[in-house]
Specification:
Distance between the termini: 68 Å
Number of helices: 9
Structural class: mainly alpha
Radius of gyration: 21 Å
Mean pLDDT: 84
Shape: elongated
Oligomer: single chain
Helix content: 55-70%
Number of strands: 2
Low-confidence stretches: none
Strand order of the largest sheet: 1-2
Number of domains: 2
Length: 169
């Protein structure tokens, strides 16, 4: 019986510590980021983060584990806020993206051990998906076409305004 009480006290202590850590990162009920964080964590593409978040809320993990898990969730959240798609969101758009990023992330969207990036630029993915959806071609061909279009636009911009090349290279 006393073991259960001790475990409950540890879990309470860990829950309080977790809440304090969220507050340190400006994610509490009074902050602007709270709603954005709730939307991020409950997005089905972020299922693995949601499961981890629930375990963190339970107080089951020790403080060191709480810090590590929360750091990973917040890194993806901040990347998301800075106009990026984490790998799992990209893979949910079209499963062919995985073949393009298989060296960078696992099929679940978790970055591989040697990968420093959290995901991909939102603008890059959206532009390629527009080509993919409108022309009904593979992701690989869409990426090549996107690259060709960007290169041609850059060349035309340089002909029209040579100063452009020195500012945007």
């Amino acid at each position: 019986m006393s073991q259960c009480i001790n475990d409950a006290k540890k879990n309470d202590s860990n829950r309080i510590y977790f809440k304090e850590q969220l507050k340190l990162h400006n994610i509490d009920c009074d902050s602007d980021k709270h709603i954005e964080f709730c939307n991020f964590i409950t997005d089905p593409a972020n299922g693995r983060h949601f499961q981890t978040f629930l375990l963190l809320c339970s107080g089951y993990f020790k403080r060191k584990v709480i810090d590590n898990k929360l750091r990973e969730i917040l890194a993806d959240f901040n990347f998301h806020l800075n106009n990026g798609y984490i790998y799992s969101q990209v893979f949910d758009k079209d499963e062919d993206w995985y073949s393009f990023f298989k060296e960078n992330a696992y099929p679940c969207g978790r970055p591989r051990n040697n990968e420093q990036r959290r995901g991909v630029s939102r603008k890059y993915v959206d532009e390629i998906m527009q080509i993919h959806d409108k022309l009904h071609i593979s992701i690989e061909r869409s990426i090549r076409l996107w690259g060709s279009l960007k290169h041609k636009k850059f060349c035309i911009d340089n002909i029209i305004n040579p100063y452009y090349a020195t500012r945007h290279t």
